[in-house]
Specification:
about 525 residues, alpha/beta, Rossmann fold, seven-stranded mixed sheet, six-stranded parallel sheet, 18 helices, about 30% helix, binds NADP nicotinamide-adenine-dinucleotide phosphate
Length: about 525
């Protein structure tokens, strides 16, 4: 669909700063800003979240399919800007849709995962085929990383879920959440082989939810935590354990890595808790952040600032956090600032140390300091918390090929391949689970769309095997195996209850942190 900027654009660039995928140009820093009549949305990169439309002070931004006749010309004008300026476009080649081939009747498809990749695959499947789609998620709440990964102080990115909610209630869709794919059938799991038996195709959009390890001594000391666990904890993911941070510690955390996840974590740790209290951050995290009060975060980059992995927009946003100072040390050889004692409690700051790598996490029973190396010398940084944020990896699903080294499901253009490199018919993998954990929602959207197009091509060329089972057979299997399946109505009940709790506190929502509470609200008591 994509949003489109129309004639009344005032170029105040409010939309540019709220766009979670930076797809509005020219930005105030770019050539052409000020001389261009209007700003333009890149239709291929737009994730349809609507944040720009909400931020627009002059009501100039609309979904493409809601434009009046006189404004339709702006679809071409927005897209044309990126054709004329390929250097600032997202760089994706034009997607050329083939004529929709004649698909066999009654296609049955499963999408595993309700994050952005699963959502965009579902949308493409509904737009391009007449398949019946069963959407599966291991949690009772949809959203994948939109709910579990996006930082609580970035609420506009979550708006993409509004689009997916419309799809989840489509009559061609059956929602089956609180259902895990794996080999533990005694605990209600459904195996990949069973999915293959009941569906023409299965799209695995399961993301990459585990952090890579640093491989340094002391990495498993209490007080040292993976970014994936910390993020899941502050985003209220059931079962996610939080860090232990002493109340009388140094007031300092060290985060390794300079990607956007590291920046999200630094921001959340250092922001005044009263600011976070307006978000949907988990109460358990807010409570701990209030009581232990980390007020300095040191971010370690192994290369220089010009090679930092964060995006410019996220870096700039750090300087807008009330009362937080940003310090950058970017010398390969110069002495590091002395961080061997506790952080100064009178200020909040984020200190970037580039050209610096962690050597070991040190402490008796828990983390007390981190030894780092820079310019051939070692230094000690006193710290209560060490977060490794050096990239994610997917989690193996027994019964599916998995590349342990790279931490993803091996595939050829989204088609799952086995160890010998042969395509597993009817199995596809989307987004981070297949591409690896880089790029945001926009990149995964494109991957999902392209992979569904390949499935359509496979169907048209008879490269899939039709299931021998009856259409109702999967529902029967599922309900026999797992008596706590949550459908669309149950999901909505959970959603409404969370939003109502949020409304009472002036927050977007108060998230449940226990599956049993979610199931009780959805009308399905836990076994
Ligand atoms: P990332 O962008 O790949 O960054 C990983 C960081 O870890 C890099 O700084 C990398 O340094 C460093 N690193 C890797 N191995 C290391 C090692 N052994 N020792 C020290 N440092 C090491 O990963 P991410 O932050 O997890 O983000 C994943 C994706 O999600 C990114 O595309 C990101 O933009 C996206 N994301 C976007 C947003 C947003 O738009 N707001 C928010 C969160 C995530 P080198 O560069 O030297 O390898």
């Amino acid at each position: 669909m994509a949003f489109v900027i129309t004639q009344s654009c005032c170029s105040d660039a409010g939309c540019v700063s709220v766009c979670p995928v930076n797809c509005i140009h020219p930005t105030p820093e770019e050539r052409g800003f000020g001389s261009s009549d209007i700003l333009h949305i890149d239709p291929e990169a737009c994730i349809d979240c609507g944040a720009c439309a909400d931020a627009c002070p002059v009501n100039a931004i609309f979904p493409a399919d809601r434009l009046g006749a006189k404004d339709k010309v702006f679809i071409e004008i927005n897209a044309g800007y990126y054709k004329d300026n390929p250097d600032i476009s997202s760089g994706w080649s034009d997607v050329v849709y083939p004529e929709i081939p004649r698909l066999p009747a009654g296609l049955r498809v499963a999408v595993v995962g309700t994050g952005p990749s699963g959502g965009y695959a579902l949308r493409t499947l509904l737009n391009r085929t007449r398949a019946h789609v069963t959407v599966i998620d291991k949690l009772p709440t949809p959203g994948g990383l939109v709910r579990a990964g996006v930082a609580p102080d970035h609420p506009s990115t979550r708006d993409v879920m509004r689009t997916f909610d419309l799809l989840h209630r489509d009559p061609h869709v059956t929602m089956a959440t609180n259902v895990e794919i794996g080999d533990d059938v005694d605990h209600g799991q459904i195996t990949p082989a069973e999915l293959a038996e009941h569906f023409d195709a299965v799209f695995y959009a399961v993301g990459a939810s585990q952090s890579r390890r640093l491989g340094i001594a002391g990495e498993d000391l209490p007080g040292s935590i993976a970014a994936s666990d910390l993020v899941a904890w502050y985003n209220a993911v059931p079962g996610a354990d939080g860090p232990s941070i002493p109340n009388d510690g140094t007031g300092r955390a060290v985060v390794v890595g300079t990607g956007n996840v590291a920046l999200d974590i630094a921001r959340i740790l250092v922001s005044p808790p009263d600011l976070l209290a307006r978000t949907d951050i988990a109460d358990r995290a807010l409570g701990l952040l209030r009581s232990q009060n980390v007020h300095e975060v040191v971010v370690l980059g192994r290369r220089g600032q010009r090679d930092a992995a964060y995006t410019e927009a996220e870096y700039r946003a750090l300087s807008t956090i009330e009362g937080v100072e940003i310090v950058v040390h970017d010398e390969a050889d110069g002495p590091l600032p002395d961080l061997s004692g506790p952080a100064d409690p009178s200020r909040r700051r984020i200190v970037f140390l580039f050209h610096t790598t962690p050597q070991s996490a040190v402490g008796e029973d828990r983390l007390e300091s981190v030894t780092v190396a820079t310019g051939g010398r070692e230094h000690r940084i006193a710290a209560d918390l060490l977060v490794r944020s050096i990239g994610y990896r997917a989690v193996r699903i027994p019964g599916l090929p998995f590349d342990e080294e790279r931490g993803h499901f091996p595939n050829a253009d989204g088609r799952v391949v086995d160890e010998a490199g042969n395509v597993v018919p009817g199995a596809y993998v989307l987004g981070w689970a297949g591409r690896g954990p880089s790029g945001g929602i926009g990149a995964n959207k494109q991957h999902a769309i392209e992979t569904v197009e390949r499935f359509i091509d496979d169907v048209a060329n008879e490269r899939i095997r039709r299931p021998a089972t009856e259409p109702e057979a999967f529902d029967e299997l599922l309900r026999k195996r797992n008596r706590k399946v949550v459908g669309y109505r149950g999901m909505r009940k959970i959603d409404r209850r969370e939003q109502a709790a949020g409304e009472r506190e002036g927050r977007p929502r108060v998230k449940f942190t226990e599956i049993s509470d979610m199931l009780a609200v959805a009308g399905r008591r836990r076994r």
